[in-house]
Specification:
This protein has 460 residues and is an alpha/beta fold. It is built from 21 helices and 14 strands. The strands form four sheets. A five-stranded parallel beta sheet has the order 2-1-3-4-5, sandwiched between helices. Strands 7-10-13-6-14 form a five-stranded parallel beta sheet. The structure holds adenosine-5'-triphosphate and magnesium ion.
């Protein structure tokens, strides 16, 4: 009936009444499910025993010979946990109860309407998808996404393990790019909390908007408030709110925030009253918050509320042992084509990476490797391709300073060229023709410039 059935769930419909079998299989095929049918219980068992796999069995409870209940019992006894929905005759609730007790997902009572059947099945598949996602998240240990085996990182994993499932507020401190947001995310994923992880970058929100961002507002609360809007706290209900750069919040908003934390209640701007929310708070800052407390820019009581547990992310230069591991990780993450082998790195380049100071920490290392990979196109990365020295983000060139420093026209132009070539390759995901188009040069010129920038390419 349809062509794309192969990707949809497989459902086995078993009923001894031909009319009902046809009605159900037509209905399900129209919804693009893949449907098989059986007219007796014995036929169902035969299909299962021959190794056929389904995502759902729709079983009539009453079939001559082997009943739906018998099938379900045998399946569960043999460790087959394929979901089963029972079809029961009108008024036979005792059978329905029995079916649920031995592990049916649900039952449909005859006569049922089509919508009821479809809703029940859709809900089942949604539950399954959700459950498997939760299992996936549970199985993924922090170490899988957080790279590092240094003593400092081991301490971090330990603290995450200890605090994740508690309600305690966590304050994550550390320099830029050390992985504060990543840690916050991992804490949430391991917390067992059912809600969402909602990050808020407090530094990026203008003072006038932050309150309504955090707490929401009612329609007409201020000019421009055209409709009611939920705040981030409300969105994070039953989940986690991540207050990034919390040190940037103004004193009046700090006061409101403190109240929310104390009462677990929020009130929308222009709202009629407060209501309860259940939100785990994780905050992060790269400022010295205690110093801000001392100078009166940050409320002391709020500081202690947020800092129930402190997690300090050490800068990369204090755990150089992790650099090689991180490099390997990013080399394989940014291989120049999805199918390519990870690029390799020369020993002298690795030595450069391991001794460099990394003011932008892991983020800077990640950017550096990403750019180096695109420029080396699968060949060994040498130290010439690395762009160390300029900190953090894609290098910004302050020309006035460079002239004052007497860096020289030739050197600075070469640097500009390398940055533009690398950036174009990055934006084009390694496609040299596309990168050349972005630079308004033809691909042979780009190839020549790349060879000049990276002698490794020329040797090939
Ligand atoms: N230990 C790690 N293993 C793998 N990736 C990491 C690790 N630490 C950080 N990263 C990666 O580095 C980048 C920066 O991390 P993140 O955004 O968490 O840093 P941050 O401390 O929040 O920085 P900022 O203070 O600038 O906001 C992200 O892409 C993150 O996935
Ligand atoms: Mg961050």
């Amino acid at each position: 009936m349809t062509s794309d059935t192969s990707i949809r769930e497989r459902i086995l419909v078993a009923d001894d009444e031909e009319g009902l079998r046809e009605l159900l299989s037509d209905l399900l095929r129209e919804e693009h499910y893949t449907v098989a049918t059986a007219d007796t219980g014995t036929a169902v068992l035969k299909r299962l025993e021959s190794g056929e796999v389904y995502d759902l069995l729709l079983l009539d409870i009453k079939m001559p010979g082997v009943s739906g209940i018998d099938i379900l019992e045998q399946m569960r006894a043999s460790g087959n946990d394929t979901p089963v929905i029972m079809i029961t005759g009108y008024g036979t609730s005792s059978n329905a109860i029995r079916a649920m007790q031995i592990g049916a997902y649900d039952y449909l009572m005859k006569p049922f309407d089509n919508e009821e059947v479809l809703v029940t099945i859709r809900r089942l598949f949604e539950h399954r998808a959700l459950a498997s996602r939760v299992r996936q998240l549970e199985q993924r240990s922090p170490e899988d996404r957080m790279i590092g085996r240094s003593p400092a990182m081991r301490d971090t994993y330990k603290t995450i393990g200890l605090v994740a499932s508690s309600e305690a507020s966590v304050l994550i401190t550390g320099e830029t790019g050390t992985g504060k947001e990543l840690v916050a995310n991992i804490i949430h994923q391991n917390s067992g909390r059912k809600g969402t992880f909602i990050p808020v970058n407090c530094a990026a929100l203008p003072e006038t908007l932050i309150e309504s961002e955090l707490f929401g507002h009612e329609k007409g609360a201020f000019t421009g408030a055209m409709a009611q809007r939920k705040g981030r706290f409300e969105l994070a209900n039953r989940g986690t709110i991540f207050l990034d750069e919390v040190g940037e919040i103004s004193l009046p908003v700090q006061k409101k925030l403190l109240r929310v934390l104390q009462e677990s209640e929020i009130e929308r701007v222009g709202g009629a009253g407060a209501f309860k929310v259940d939100v785990r708070v994780i905050a992060a800052t790269n400022r010295d918050l205690l110093e801000e407390v001392r100078t009166g820019n940050f409320r002391e009581d709020l500081y202690y509320r947020l800092n129930v547990v402190n997690l300090h992310m050490p800068p990369l230069r204090e755990r150089r042992g992790d650099i090689a591991l991180l490099v390997e990780h990013f080399l394989s993450k940014y291989r120049y084509k999805p199918t390519a082998q990870p690029t390799r790195i020369s020993e002298e380049a690795m030595e450069r990476l391991e001794t460099y100071d990394w003011p932008g920490n892991v983020r800077q290392l990640e950017n550096e490797i990403e750019r180096a990979v695109t420029l080396s196109q699968g060949r060994v990365i040498t130290s010439q391709v690395l762009n160390l020295g300029t900190a953090g983000q894609p290098a910004q060139i302050d020309l006035a300073t460079r002239v004052r420093n007497r860096d020289g026209l030739v050197a600075v132009l070469a640097e500009v060229e390398r940055i533009m070539v690398q950036e174009a390759l990055r934006q084009a995901e390694g496609d040299t023709n596309e990168a050349a188009r972005r630079l308004l040069i033809d691909s042979s010129e780009l190839a020549a410039r790349m060879r000049a920038l990276n002698p490794e390419l020329a040797e090939a």
